[in-house]
Amino acid sequence: MERNPRSLAMAVLFCLLTASGCTGADDAPPELRIEVVGTRPHDPRAFTQGLEISDGVLYESTGLTGASWVRASDLATGAELARAQVPGDFFGEGITRAGATLWQLTWKDNVAYARDPASLAVRGQARYDGEGWGLCTRGERLVMSDGTATLTFRDPISFAVTGTVALDGYRGAHLNELDCAPDGSVYANDYPTDRILRIDPESGRVLGVIDARGLLTPAERARTDVLNGIAHLPGTDRFLVTGKYWPTIFEVRFVPV
């Protein structure tokens, strides 16, 4: 069938003027699935908001107004090393280790707590605008989500904003818990789905879409909440993933569909 040159030119112009451009099936990011290679017990009372691994320690933060806490446990044995409450009625959110500081977000309270990584005691705090959801450390800056399709970069010392990037082609995503992987990409839970997005934080391009359905039985799904919590296992190609009130932490690989 012949193409009308003028119509073709108008279509190309439309693609250039739209923010996301026109992409075909070949431009879609790879689809991946989860391969479970192991499991660990998880506290089914934990309304998980953040998961982080650093120096052999698994850090976890939880939410709920007036009942939020952060915990450090031995990655190898699961033994609890320290636990601390979030002050007052604040709702805890994501965490990340940045050097000698463990940063913890709050949801709508506009406060980030700077904690001691060993004792989990609060050593300071910083204020920010908007909501706090997920947090991870990538090189010399923090990466933060606020429930939208935009990532915000912050200074690991002052917590000041140093830049932002919006997802390319995924403006409806609600980025939640984050993990900054060694390859430079950021993995993000897309609330409230069972989808994990692998993101290039420099461009906002989505590099992969991971289907994490089927980890829980129907009975477990009935008494739990959403997938939330992802942490790369150092020195491996594996991640730990879990969710709010989940009874299990899954050790997984992300493999092609």
Automatic annotation (TrEMBL):
InterPro entries registered for this protein in UniProt: QCT, Quino_amine_DH_bsu, WD40/YVTN_repeat-like_dom_sf
Keywords, in A-Z order: Signal
Keyword presence, Thylakoid: no
Any coiled-coil regions, as ranges: none
SUPFAM superfamilies attached to this UniProt entry: YVTN repeat-like/Quinoprotein amine dehydrogenase
Extent of the signal sequence: 1-25
Claim: Signal is one of the keywords in the record: yes
Name of this chain's protein: Glutamine cyclotransferase
Originating organism: Nocardia goodfellowii
